[in-house]
Amino acid sequence: MRRPETRPPGTAGDGVVREPSQVDHRRLPIRFARLGPLGYLGSVLFLAFFVSALQGTQFSLAEIARGAPYMVTLLSEMFPPSLERIGAVSLALLETFQMALVGTVFGVLASLGLGVLATRSLTPGVLVHQCSRMLIALFRTVPDLIWALIFVVLVGLGPFAGTLAIMIDTIGFCGRFFAEAMEEVDKGPQEALAAIGASRLGVICCAVFPAALPSFIGTALFSLEKATRSSVVLGLVGAGGIGIELKVSMDMFMYSQASTIIILVFALVLLVERLSSRLRQRII
Amino acid sequence: MISCVLPAGAEAPAGLFPGRPRDIAARGLRKSFGRAEVLRGVDLDVPRGQAVALIGSNGAGKSTLLRCLMRLVEPCAGSVRILDREIGGMRTRELRSLRAQVGFVFQKHNLVPRLCALSNVLHGAQAREHSPRLWLQMLATDGNRLEALRCLEKVGLGHVAERRVDTLSGGQSQRVAIARALMQRPKIILADEPVASLDPQAGMEVMEIFLELIRREGITLVFTCHSLEQALRYSDRVIGLRGGVIELDAPSASLSEQSLRGIYASA
Predict the structure, then answer these.
(1) Cα B179 from Cα B197, distance rounded (Å)
(2) Residues of chain A contacting B108 with CB distance shorter than 8 Å
(3) Each residue of A224-254: pLDDT tens digit?
(4) Alpha carbons A125 and A237: distance in angstroms, whole number
Protein backbone atom coordinates (compact mmCIF):
# COMPACT_ATOMS: atom_id res chain seq x y z
CA MET A 1 0.00 0.00 0.00
CA ARG A 2 1.31 3.42 -0.90
CA ARG A 3 1.89 5.70 2.09
CA PRO A 4 0.58 9.25 1.80
CA GLU A 5 3.28 11.84 1.42
CA THR A 6 3.97 13.79 4.58
CA ARG A 7 6.02 16.68 3.27
CA PRO A 8 4.76 20.09 4.46
CA PRO A 9 2.38 21.99 2.20
CA GLY A 10 4.07 24.70 0.20
CA THR A 11 7.23 22.67 -0.33
CA ALA A 12 8.08 20.37 -3.16
CA GLY A 13 9.70 17.86 -0.88
CA ASP A 14 13.06 19.53 -1.18
CA GLY A 15 12.36 21.75 1.85
CA VAL A 16 12.19 24.90 -0.28
CA VAL A 17 9.21 27.13 0.55
CA ARG A 18 7.31 28.13 -2.60
CA GLU A 19 5.39 31.32 -3.34
CA PRO A 20 1.60 30.94 -2.74
CA SER A 21 0.98 30.92 -6.50
CA GLN A 22 3.28 27.95 -6.87
CA VAL A 23 1.63 25.87 -4.09
CA ASP A 24 -0.20 22.78 -5.21
CA HIS A 25 -3.65 23.50 -3.65
CA ARG A 26 -4.76 19.89 -3.98
CA ARG A 27 -2.26 19.04 -1.27
CA LEU A 28 -3.78 21.42 1.32
CA PRO A 29 -6.00 19.96 4.05
CA ILE A 30 -9.72 20.48 3.38
CA ARG A 31 -11.29 23.42 5.18
CA PHE A 32 -14.58 21.71 6.06
CA ALA A 33 -15.41 18.08 6.64
CA ARG A 34 -17.45 16.71 3.72
CA LEU A 35 -21.09 16.01 4.52
CA GLY A 36 -22.27 12.42 4.29
CA PRO A 37 -25.55 11.63 2.48
CA LEU A 38 -27.52 11.87 5.75
CA GLY A 39 -25.89 15.15 6.72
CA TYR A 40 -26.55 16.53 3.26
CA LEU A 41 -30.21 15.44 3.36
CA GLY A 42 -30.62 16.86 6.88
CA SER A 43 -29.18 20.23 5.83
CA VAL A 44 -31.46 20.44 2.80
CA LEU A 45 -34.52 19.51 4.87
CA PHE A 46 -33.65 22.05 7.55
CA LEU A 47 -33.19 24.79 4.98
CA ALA A 48 -36.48 23.90 3.28
CA PHE A 49 -38.34 23.92 6.58
CA PHE A 50 -36.80 27.24 7.56
CA VAL A 51 -37.93 28.84 4.29
CA SER A 52 -41.45 27.45 4.76
CA ALA A 53 -41.38 28.75 8.37
CA LEU A 54 -40.57 32.23 7.07
CA GLN A 55 -43.68 32.03 4.91
CA GLY A 56 -45.75 30.43 7.70
CA THR A 57 -44.88 33.23 10.10
CA GLN A 58 -45.53 35.84 7.38
CA PHE A 59 -42.12 37.30 8.19
CA SER A 60 -41.86 40.53 6.27
CA LEU A 61 -39.41 43.41 6.47
CA ALA A 62 -41.89 45.48 4.45
CA GLU A 63 -44.48 45.08 7.22
CA ILE A 64 -41.92 46.27 9.77
CA ALA A 65 -41.20 49.32 7.60
CA ARG A 66 -44.96 49.98 7.18
CA GLY A 67 -45.49 49.66 10.97
CA ALA A 68 -42.68 52.03 11.91
CA PRO A 69 -44.80 55.23 11.78
CA TYR A 70 -47.43 53.57 14.00
CA MET A 71 -44.66 52.70 16.45
CA VAL A 72 -43.72 56.35 16.64
CA THR A 73 -47.39 57.24 17.26
CA LEU A 74 -47.67 54.54 19.95
CA LEU A 75 -44.50 55.72 21.69
CA SER A 76 -45.68 59.34 21.58
CA GLU A 77 -48.96 58.25 23.23
CA MET A 78 -47.11 56.24 25.85
CA PHE A 79 -45.05 59.19 27.01
CA PRO A 80 -45.17 60.80 29.42
CA PRO A 81 -46.27 57.81 31.58
CA SER A 82 -49.47 58.41 33.50
CA LEU A 83 -49.28 58.43 37.29
CA GLU A 84 -53.06 58.54 37.61
CA ARG A 85 -53.45 55.02 39.02
CA ILE A 86 -49.96 54.66 40.44
CA GLY A 87 -51.29 53.43 43.81
CA ALA A 88 -53.35 50.57 42.34
CA VAL A 89 -50.61 49.67 39.87
CA SER A 90 -47.99 49.59 42.64
CA LEU A 91 -50.17 47.28 44.71
CA ALA A 92 -50.60 45.00 41.70
CA LEU A 93 -46.84 45.03 41.22
CA LEU A 94 -46.34 44.10 44.87
CA GLU A 95 -48.83 41.27 44.44
CA THR A 96 -46.88 40.11 41.39
CA PHE A 97 -43.67 39.90 43.37
CA GLN A 98 -45.45 38.21 46.27
CA MET A 99 -46.71 35.54 43.87
CA ALA A 100 -43.19 35.04 42.50
CA LEU A 101 -41.63 34.82 45.96
CA VAL A 102 -44.15 32.46 47.56
CA GLY A 103 -44.34 30.28 44.45
CA THR A 104 -40.55 30.07 44.24
CA VAL A 105 -40.02 29.29 47.93
CA PHE A 106 -42.59 26.46 47.97
CA GLY A 107 -41.36 25.27 44.57
CA VAL A 108 -37.76 25.13 45.75
CA LEU A 109 -38.72 23.23 48.92
CA ALA A 110 -40.72 20.71 46.91
CA SER A 111 -37.84 20.43 44.42
CA LEU A 112 -35.46 19.36 47.18
CA GLY A 113 -37.58 16.31 47.97
CA LEU A 114 -38.40 15.49 44.37
CA GLY A 115 -34.80 16.14 43.35
CA VAL A 116 -33.56 13.54 45.87
CA LEU A 117 -35.98 10.97 44.44
CA ALA A 118 -34.81 11.85 40.94
CA THR A 119 -31.11 11.46 41.84
CA ARG A 120 -29.88 8.07 40.72
CA SER A 121 -27.48 7.60 43.63
CA LEU A 122 -30.00 8.63 46.32
CA THR A 123 -33.33 7.32 45.08
CA PRO A 124 -34.87 4.40 46.94
CA GLY A 125 -35.66 2.52 43.71
CA VAL A 126 -35.50 2.58 39.93
CA LEU A 127 -39.27 2.99 39.58
CA VAL A 128 -39.33 5.94 41.98
CA HIS A 129 -36.42 7.47 40.08
CA GLN A 130 -38.15 7.11 36.71
CA CYS A 131 -41.51 8.41 38.01
CA SER A 132 -39.98 11.46 39.66
CA ARG A 133 -37.92 12.25 36.53
CA MET A 134 -41.10 12.02 34.43
CA LEU A 135 -43.02 14.25 36.85
CA ILE A 136 -40.28 16.88 36.75
CA ALA A 137 -40.20 16.67 32.94
CA LEU A 138 -43.98 17.16 32.83
CA PHE A 139 -43.79 20.20 35.10
CA ARG A 140 -40.98 21.65 33.01
CA THR A 141 -42.35 21.05 29.54
CA VAL A 142 -45.89 22.35 30.08
CA PRO A 143 -45.65 26.19 29.95
CA ASP A 144 -46.52 28.18 33.07
CA LEU A 145 -49.38 29.94 31.28
CA ILE A 146 -51.12 26.60 30.81
CA TRP A 147 -50.58 25.70 34.48
CA ALA A 148 -52.11 29.08 35.33
CA LEU A 149 -55.17 28.29 33.17
CA ILE A 150 -55.55 24.92 34.92
CA PHE A 151 -55.23 26.45 38.41
CA VAL A 152 -57.68 29.25 37.56
CA VAL A 153 -60.19 26.48 36.87
CA LEU A 154 -59.23 24.63 40.07
CA VAL A 155 -58.97 27.46 42.61
CA GLY A 156 -60.59 30.37 40.81
CA LEU A 157 -59.31 33.69 39.53
CA GLY A 158 -56.70 35.53 41.55
CA PRO A 159 -53.11 35.43 42.74
CA PHE A 160 -53.37 31.99 44.37
CA ALA A 161 -53.78 30.34 40.96
CA GLY A 162 -50.73 32.23 39.71
CA THR A 163 -48.71 31.28 42.79
CA LEU A 164 -49.50 27.59 42.25
CA ALA A 165 -48.55 27.88 38.57
CA ILE A 166 -45.20 29.44 39.52
CA MET A 167 -44.64 26.74 42.12
CA ILE A 168 -45.16 23.96 39.56
CA ASP A 169 -42.98 25.73 37.02
CA THR A 170 -40.26 26.17 39.67
CA ILE A 171 -40.38 22.46 40.53
CA GLY A 172 -39.89 21.66 36.85
CA PHE A 173 -36.91 24.00 36.64
CA CYS A 174 -35.25 23.41 40.02
CA GLY A 175 -36.06 19.70 40.31
CA ARG A 176 -33.94 18.87 37.31
CA PHE A 177 -30.99 21.08 38.26
CA PHE A 178 -31.09 20.03 41.92
CA ALA A 179 -31.00 16.35 40.90
CA GLU A 180 -28.05 16.97 38.61
CA ALA A 181 -26.21 18.94 41.29
CA MET A 182 -26.73 16.13 43.82
CA GLU A 183 -25.58 13.57 41.26
CA GLU A 184 -22.31 15.45 40.80
CA VAL A 185 -21.27 16.07 44.41
CA ASP A 186 -18.22 14.29 45.81
CA LYS A 187 -19.24 10.81 46.98
CA GLY A 188 -16.47 10.65 49.61
CA PRO A 189 -18.33 12.34 52.49
CA GLN A 190 -21.39 10.20 51.72
CA GLU A 191 -19.30 7.05 51.90
CA ALA A 192 -17.74 8.24 55.16
CA LEU A 193 -21.12 8.80 56.79
CA ALA A 194 -22.54 5.55 55.45
CA ALA A 195 -19.49 3.78 56.86
CA ILE A 196 -20.29 4.99 60.38
CA GLY A 197 -23.89 3.84 60.15
CA ALA A 198 -25.65 7.15 59.43
CA SER A 199 -29.18 6.79 58.05
CA ARG A 200 -29.94 7.56 54.41
CA LEU A 201 -31.67 10.79 55.47
CA GLY A 202 -28.66 11.66 57.63
CA VAL A 203 -26.28 11.12 54.70
CA ILE A 204 -28.45 13.29 52.42
CA CYS A 205 -28.84 16.13 54.88
CA CYS A 206 -25.28 16.08 56.25
CA ALA A 207 -23.22 15.31 53.15
CA VAL A 208 -25.27 15.86 49.99
CA PHE A 209 -27.24 19.02 50.71
CA PRO A 210 -24.31 21.07 52.09
CA ALA A 211 -22.11 20.04 49.16
CA ALA A 212 -24.78 20.93 46.61
CA LEU A 213 -25.78 24.13 48.42
CA PRO A 214 -24.02 26.61 46.09
CA SER A 215 -25.75 25.06 43.12
CA PHE A 216 -29.09 25.04 44.98
CA ILE A 217 -28.78 28.72 45.82
CA GLY A 218 -27.75 29.69 42.29
CA THR A 219 -30.62 27.74 40.74
CA ALA A 220 -33.15 29.03 43.28
CA LEU A 221 -32.17 32.64 42.61
CA PHE A 222 -32.37 32.14 38.84
CA SER A 223 -35.74 30.60 39.47
CA LEU A 224 -36.89 33.68 41.40
CA GLU A 225 -35.83 35.90 38.49
CA LYS A 226 -37.70 33.66 36.08
CA ALA A 227 -40.77 33.58 38.34
CA THR A 228 -40.80 37.38 38.59
CA ARG A 229 -40.94 37.64 34.80
CA SER A 230 -43.53 34.85 34.56
CA SER A 231 -45.80 36.33 37.23
CA VAL A 232 -46.25 39.45 35.09
CA VAL A 233 -47.66 37.41 32.22
CA LEU A 234 -49.84 35.14 34.35
CA GLY A 235 -52.21 38.04 35.06
CA LEU A 236 -53.24 37.94 31.41
CA VAL A 237 -55.21 34.74 32.11
CA GLY A 238 -56.63 36.03 35.39
CA ALA A 239 -54.07 34.41 37.67
CA GLY A 240 -53.37 37.58 39.64
CA GLY A 241 -50.64 40.17 39.49
CA ILE A 242 -49.99 43.18 37.32
CA GLY A 243 -50.59 41.42 34.01
CA ILE A 244 -54.32 42.08 34.09
CA GLU A 245 -53.69 45.81 34.65
CA LEU A 246 -51.45 45.84 31.57
CA LYS A 247 -54.01 44.00 29.47
CA VAL A 248 -56.82 46.35 30.49
CA SER A 249 -54.66 49.40 29.76
CA MET A 250 -53.74 48.12 26.30
CA ASP A 251 -57.32 47.04 25.52
CA MET A 252 -58.66 50.45 26.59
CA PHE A 253 -55.96 52.28 24.53
CA MET A 254 -54.61 53.84 27.77
CA TYR A 255 -51.05 53.69 26.48
CA SER A 256 -49.61 56.21 28.95
CA GLN A 257 -50.81 53.99 31.79
CA ALA A 258 -49.47 50.91 30.02
CA SER A 259 -46.05 52.57 29.79
CA THR A 260 -46.10 53.17 33.57
CA ILE A 261 -46.78 49.47 34.11
CA ILE A 262 -44.04 48.41 31.67
CA ILE A 263 -41.51 50.71 33.35
CA LEU A 264 -42.44 49.40 36.81
CA VAL A 265 -42.19 45.79 35.63
CA PHE A 266 -38.81 46.54 34.07
CA ALA A 267 -37.64 48.11 37.34
CA LEU A 268 -38.88 45.16 39.40
CA VAL A 269 -37.28 42.53 37.17
CA LEU A 270 -34.02 44.49 37.07
CA LEU A 271 -34.03 44.91 40.85
CA VAL A 272 -34.63 41.20 41.44
CA GLU A 273 -31.88 40.28 38.96
CA ARG A 274 -29.39 42.65 40.57
CA LEU A 275 -30.24 41.49 44.08
CA SER A 276 -30.04 37.82 43.18
CA SER A 277 -26.76 38.39 41.41
CA ARG A 278 -25.35 40.10 44.51
CA LEU A 279 -26.64 37.32 46.76
CA ARG A 280 -25.18 34.64 44.50
CA GLN A 281 -21.77 36.29 44.64
CA ARG A 282 -21.93 36.66 48.40
CA ILE A 283 -23.22 33.23 49.30
CA ILE A 284 -21.49 31.11 46.67
CA MET B 1 9.91 -15.79 50.31
CA ILE B 2 9.73 -13.63 53.38
CA SER B 3 11.44 -14.89 56.48
CA CYS B 4 8.59 -14.39 58.93
CA VAL B 5 5.75 -15.92 56.93
CA LEU B 6 3.58 -17.94 59.23
CA PRO B 7 3.21 -21.62 58.58
CA ALA B 8 -0.39 -22.69 57.94
CA GLY B 9 -2.33 -23.14 61.18
CA ALA B 10 0.22 -21.37 63.33
CA GLU B 11 -0.98 -19.04 66.08
CA ALA B 12 -1.09 -15.55 64.66
CA PRO B 13 0.32 -12.66 66.68
CA ALA B 14 -3.19 -12.01 67.93
CA GLY B 15 -1.62 -13.87 70.82
CA LEU B 16 0.25 -10.68 71.67
CA PHE B 17 -2.78 -9.76 73.74
CA PRO B 18 -3.65 -13.00 75.52
CA GLY B 19 -7.03 -13.27 77.16
CA ARG B 20 -8.51 -10.31 75.33
CA PRO B 21 -11.64 -10.79 73.24
CA ARG B 22 -11.19 -10.69 69.48
CA ASP B 23 -12.81 -7.56 68.09
CA ILE B 24 -12.26 -8.68 64.49
CA ALA B 25 -12.31 -12.25 63.25
CA ALA B 26 -12.39 -12.94 59.50
CA ARG B 27 -12.30 -16.39 57.94
CA GLY B 28 -11.67 -17.35 54.34
CA LEU B 29 -12.45 -13.88 53.02
CA ARG B 30 -12.57 -13.72 49.24
CA LYS B 31 -13.35 -10.85 46.92
CA SER B 32 -13.20 -10.52 43.16
CA PHE B 33 -13.85 -7.56 40.89
CA GLY B 34 -14.76 -9.14 37.58
CA ARG B 35 -11.99 -11.61 36.85
CA ALA B 36 -9.52 -9.97 39.18
CA GLU B 37 -9.30 -11.86 42.45
CA VAL B 38 -8.31 -9.26 45.03
CA LEU B 39 -8.68 -11.30 48.23
CA ARG B 40 -7.98 -15.01 48.12
CA GLY B 41 -9.00 -16.52 51.41
CA VAL B 42 -7.88 -14.13 54.15
CA ASP B 43 -8.03 -15.18 57.80
CA LEU B 44 -7.57 -12.41 60.34
CA ASP B 45 -7.94 -12.11 64.11
CA VAL B 46 -7.45 -8.83 65.92
CA PRO B 47 -7.76 -8.74 69.70
CA ARG B 48 -9.13 -5.73 71.54
CA GLY B 49 -6.76 -2.81 71.88
CA GLN B 50 -4.26 -4.05 69.31
CA ALA B 51 -2.85 -1.75 66.63
CA VAL B 52 -2.37 -3.61 63.37
CA ALA B 53 -0.59 -2.24 60.32
CA LEU B 54 -1.60 -3.70 56.96
CA ILE B 55 1.13 -3.35 54.38
CA GLY B 56 1.49 -4.48 50.80
CA SER B 57 1.99 -3.09 47.34
CA ASN B 58 -0.79 -1.36 45.41
CA GLY B 59 -3.48 -3.85 44.48
CA ALA B 60 -2.46 -6.30 47.20
CA GLY B 61 -5.96 -6.07 48.70
CA LYS B 62 -5.41 -3.89 51.79
CA SER B 63 -8.20 -1.38 51.17
CA THR B 64 -10.54 -4.08 49.94
CA LEU B 65 -9.90 -6.08 53.09
CA LEU B 66 -10.74 -3.09 55.29
CA ARG B 67 -13.91 -2.41 53.31
CA CYS B 68 -14.96 -6.05 53.39
CA LEU B 69 -14.64 -6.05 57.18
CA MET B 70 -17.48 -3.50 57.37
CA ARG B 71 -19.31 -4.69 54.24
CA LEU B 72 -18.66 -1.38 52.54
CA VAL B 73 -17.65 -3.85 49.84
CA GLU B 74 -19.53 -7.15 49.85
CA PRO B 75 -17.14 -10.11 50.10
CA CYS B 76 -17.74 -12.97 47.65
CA ALA B 77 -17.07 -15.63 50.26
CA GLY B 78 -15.97 -16.05 53.87
CA SER B 79 -17.24 -14.78 57.19
CA VAL B 80 -16.52 -11.75 59.35
CA ARG B 81 -17.25 -11.32 63.04
CA ILE B 82 -16.96 -7.80 64.41
CA LEU B 83 -17.32 -7.28 68.16
CA ASP B 84 -18.51 -10.87 68.38
CA ARG B 85 -21.31 -10.36 65.85
CA GLU B 86 -21.46 -12.09 62.51
CA ILE B 87 -21.98 -9.36 59.90
CA GLY B 88 -22.65 -11.61 56.91
CA GLY B 89 -26.43 -11.93 57.17
CA MET B 90 -27.11 -8.64 58.92
CA ARG B 91 -29.95 -6.46 57.76
CA THR B 92 -29.35 -2.80 57.00
CA ARG B 93 -30.51 -1.61 60.40
CA GLU B 94 -28.34 -4.10 62.30
CA LEU B 95 -25.39 -3.31 60.10
CA ARG B 96 -25.83 0.39 60.79
CA SER B 97 -25.84 -0.17 64.53
CA LEU B 98 -22.66 -2.22 64.24
CA ARG B 99 -20.97 0.31 61.97
CA ALA B 100 -21.77 2.91 64.62
CA GLN B 101 -19.16 1.27 66.84
CA VAL B 102 -16.49 1.19 64.16
CA GLY B 103 -14.79 4.40 63.05
CA PHE B 104 -13.55 4.54 59.47
CA VAL B 105 -10.85 7.02 58.50
CA PHE B 106 -10.19 7.40 54.78
CA GLN B 107 -7.09 8.42 52.87
CA LYS B 108 -8.93 11.47 51.64
CA HIS B 109 -10.51 12.75 54.83
CA ASN B 110 -14.00 12.84 53.25
CA LEU B 111 -15.24 15.77 55.31
CA VAL B 112 -18.09 17.99 54.11
CA PRO B 113 -16.10 20.96 52.80
CA ARG B 114 -18.60 23.79 53.29
CA LEU B 115 -19.29 22.98 56.92
CA CYS B 116 -17.27 23.97 59.96
CA ALA B 117 -15.05 21.50 61.80
CA LEU B 118 -17.52 21.24 64.69
CA SER B 119 -20.43 20.30 62.39
CA ASN B 120 -18.27 17.68 60.70
CA VAL B 121 -17.30 16.18 64.05
CA LEU B 122 -20.93 16.22 65.20
CA HIS B 123 -21.79 14.03 62.21
CA GLY B 124 -19.90 11.25 63.97
CA ALA B 125 -22.69 11.08 66.52
CA GLN B 126 -25.09 10.10 63.73
CA ALA B 127 -23.79 6.65 64.39
CA ARG B 128 -25.72 6.41 67.65
CA GLU B 129 -28.42 9.07 67.32
CA HIS B 130 -30.35 9.62 64.12
CA SER B 131 -31.43 13.09 65.11
CA PRO B 132 -31.83 16.03 62.71
CA ARG B 133 -30.20 18.10 65.44
CA LEU B 134 -26.89 16.52 64.51
CA TRP B 135 -26.97 17.80 60.95
CA LEU B 136 -25.47 21.17 61.86
CA GLN B 137 -23.75 22.47 64.97
CA MET B 138 -26.23 25.34 65.22
CA LEU B 139 -29.05 22.82 65.75
CA ALA B 140 -27.22 20.45 68.12
CA THR B 141 -27.72 20.18 71.86
CA ASP B 142 -25.11 21.75 74.11
CA GLY B 143 -24.12 18.27 75.30
CA ASN B 144 -23.33 17.11 71.79
CA ARG B 145 -21.57 20.35 70.91
CA LEU B 146 -19.41 20.03 74.01
CA GLU B 147 -18.55 16.42 73.24
CA ALA B 148 -17.65 17.35 69.65
CA LEU B 149 -15.45 20.16 70.93
CA ARG B 150 -13.69 17.74 73.30
CA CYS B 151 -13.08 15.34 70.40
CA LEU B 152 -11.52 18.21 68.46
CA GLU B 153 -9.40 19.10 71.49
CA LYS B 154 -8.19 15.50 71.70
CA VAL B 155 -6.69 15.89 68.25
CA GLY B 156 -5.37 19.35 69.13
CA LEU B 157 -7.84 21.32 67.03
CA GLY B 158 -10.19 22.88 69.57
CA HIS B 159 -9.21 26.32 68.26
CA VAL B 160 -10.48 25.65 64.70
CA ALA B 161 -13.94 24.43 65.70
CA GLU B 162 -15.72 27.25 63.89
CA ARG B 163 -13.57 27.24 60.76
CA ARG B 164 -14.80 25.75 57.51
CA VAL B 165 -12.90 22.54 56.86
CA ASP B 166 -12.02 23.58 53.31
CA THR B 167 -9.80 26.26 54.83
CA LEU B 168 -7.81 23.73 56.89
CA SER B 169 -4.55 22.07 55.88
CA GLY B 170 -4.46 18.41 54.83
CA GLY B 171 -3.09 17.35 58.22
CA GLN B 172 -5.69 19.35 60.11
CA SER B 173 -8.47 17.93 57.94
CA GLN B 174 -7.34 14.39 58.65
CA ARG B 175 -7.29 15.18 62.37
CA VAL B 176 -10.86 16.49 62.10
CA ALA B 177 -11.76 13.18 60.42
CA ILE B 178 -10.23 11.35 63.38
CA ALA B 179 -12.21 13.58 65.75
CA ARG B 180 -15.35 12.63 63.82
CA ALA B 181 -14.48 8.98 64.30
CA LEU B 182 -13.96 9.60 68.03
CA MET B 183 -17.37 11.26 68.25
CA GLN B 184 -18.77 7.83 67.42
CA ARG B 185 -17.24 6.54 70.67
CA PRO B 186 -15.88 3.66 68.61
CA LYS B 187 -14.47 0.38 69.84
CA ILE B 188 -12.58 -0.16 66.59
CA ILE B 189 -11.02 2.27 64.11
CA LEU B 190 -10.23 1.16 60.57
CA ALA B 191 -7.98 3.62 58.76
CA ASP B 192 -7.27 3.31 55.05
CA GLU B 193 -3.92 4.99 54.36
CA PRO B 194 -4.74 7.80 56.78
CA VAL B 195 -1.48 9.65 56.17
CA ALA B 196 -0.89 8.92 52.49
CA SER B 197 -1.91 12.39 51.37
CA LEU B 198 -0.01 14.23 54.12
CA ASP B 199 3.53 15.51 54.34
CA PRO B 200 5.84 13.45 56.60
CA GLN B 201 5.49 15.81 59.57
CA ALA B 202 1.68 15.97 59.42
CA GLY B 203 1.59 12.22 58.86
CA MET B 204 3.61 11.61 62.00
CA GLU B 205 1.37 13.92 64.01
CA VAL B 206 -1.72 12.05 62.85
CA MET B 207 -0.20 8.67 63.65
CA GLU B 208 0.90 9.90 67.11
CA ILE B 209 -2.71 10.87 67.77
CA PHE B 210 -3.87 7.41 66.73
CA LEU B 211 -1.29 5.76 68.94
CA GLU B 212 -2.24 7.87 71.94
CA LEU B 213 -5.92 7.04 71.45
CA ILE B 214 -5.21 3.35 71.25
CA ARG B 215 -3.17 3.43 74.44
CA ARG B 216 -5.49 5.76 76.35
CA GLU B 217 -8.91 4.56 75.25
CA GLY B 218 -8.19 0.93 74.41
CA ILE B 219 -9.49 1.25 70.84
CA THR B 220 -8.59 -1.46 68.36
CA LEU B 221 -6.88 -0.04 65.28
CA VAL B 222 -6.28 -1.54 61.87
CA PHE B 223 -4.56 0.81 59.45
CA THR B 224 -3.03 0.44 56.02
CA CYS B 225 0.11 2.28 55.06
CA HIS B 226 3.03 2.22 52.66
CA SER B 227 5.60 3.60 55.09
CA LEU B 228 7.46 0.69 56.65
CA GLU B 229 8.84 3.01 59.31
CA GLN B 230 5.35 4.07 60.36
CA ALA B 231 4.06 0.51 60.19
CA LEU B 232 6.72 -0.60 62.65
CA ARG B 233 6.59 2.44 64.85
CA TYR B 234 2.84 2.78 65.34
CA SER B 235 1.62 -0.81 65.41
CA ASP B 236 1.83 -3.81 67.69
CA ARG B 237 1.65 -6.14 64.74
CA VAL B 238 2.31 -6.00 61.02
CA ILE B 239 0.35 -7.97 58.46
CA GLY B 240 1.71 -8.12 54.92
CA LEU B 241 -0.61 -8.83 52.02
CA ARG B 242 0.57 -9.96 48.63
CA GLY B 243 -1.67 -10.98 45.77
CA GLY B 244 -4.70 -11.16 48.06
CA VAL B 245 -3.23 -13.48 50.68
CA ILE B 246 -1.52 -12.84 53.99
CA GLU B 247 2.16 -13.49 53.50
CA LEU B 248 3.42 -12.01 56.71
CA ASP B 249 1.97 -11.71 60.18
CA ALA B 250 4.32 -10.85 63.00
CA PRO B 251 4.76 -8.61 66.06
CA SER B 252 6.24 -5.28 65.05
CA ALA B 253 8.95 -5.65 67.67
CA SER B 254 10.31 -8.70 65.88
CA LEU B 255 10.53 -6.99 62.48
CA SER B 256 12.79 -4.55 60.74
CA GLU B 257 12.27 -2.41 57.66
CA GLN B 258 14.64 -4.73 55.84
CA SER B 259 12.55 -7.78 56.66
CA LEU B 260 9.38 -6.02 55.48
CA ARG B 261 10.75 -5.01 52.09
CA GLY B 262 10.25 -8.51 50.75
CA ILE B 263 6.49 -8.01 50.83
CA TYR B 264 6.85 -5.40 48.10
CA ALA B 265 8.93 -7.66 45.87
CA SER B 266 7.05 -8.67 42.72
CA ALA B 267 5.02 -11.84 43.21
Answers:
(1) 18
(2) 188
(3) 989 988 888 888 888 888 888 888 888 888 8
(4) 39
Q: Which residues pair with B237 in a beta bridge?
A: B52, B251
C-alpha B179/C-alpha B160 separation (Å) is 12
Residue A87 within any structural domain of the chain: no
3-class SS at A166? Answer: helix
In a domain, A143, yes or no: yes
Asked if B114 and A213 come within 8 Å (Cβ–Cβ), the reply is yes
- Residue A26 placed within a domain: no
Q: Do A195 and B98 touch (CB under 8 A)?
A: no
DSSP A4-31: PP-PPTTB-SSSPBPPGGGS-GGGSPPS
Mean pLDDT (10-residue bins), chain B, 267 residues: 40 60 90 89 90 89 90 90 89 86 86 91 84 82 90 88 91 88 88 83 82 83 89 90 89 84 71
Chain A residue numbers with beta carbons less than 8 Å from the beta carbon of B174 are none
Taking contacts as CB-CB distances below 8 angstroms, the residues of chain A near B100 are 196-197
Inside any domain, residue A172: yes
Asked if the ipTM is above 0.90, the reply is: no
Report whether the peptide linkage leading into residue A80 is cis, meaning its omega lies within 30 degrees of zero.
Answer: yes
Give the start-end residues of each E strand in chain B: 22-33, 36-47, 51-55, 77-82, 85-86, 102-105, 188-191, 220-224, 237-242, 245-251
Q: Is A206 in contact with B123 (Cβ distance < 8 A)?
A: yes
Secondary structure element (H or E) that encloses residue A159, with its range: helix A159-184
Q: State the Rg of chain B over Cα.
A: 18
**How many domains does one find in chain A?**
1
DSSP β-ladder status, B237-242 and B85-86: unpaired
For residue A186, list chain B residues with Cβ-Cβ distance below 8 A.
Answer: 113
Instruction: From residue A129, give the alpha-carbon distance in Å to each of A73, A121, A122, B71.
Output: 56, 10, 9, 25
Count contacts between A and B (CB, < 8 Å): 74
Nearest CB to A211; choose among B70, B97, B113: B113
Tell me the C-alpha distance between A219 and A239, whole Å.
Answer: 25
A133-150 pLDDT, tens digit each: 999 999 999 999 999 999
**Which domains, and CATH codes, for chain B?**
19-101+187-259 (3.40.50.300), 111-184 (no CATH)
The CATH number that applies at residue A219 is 1.10.3720.10
Range of the domain at A115: 97-283
**DSSP code, position B95:** H
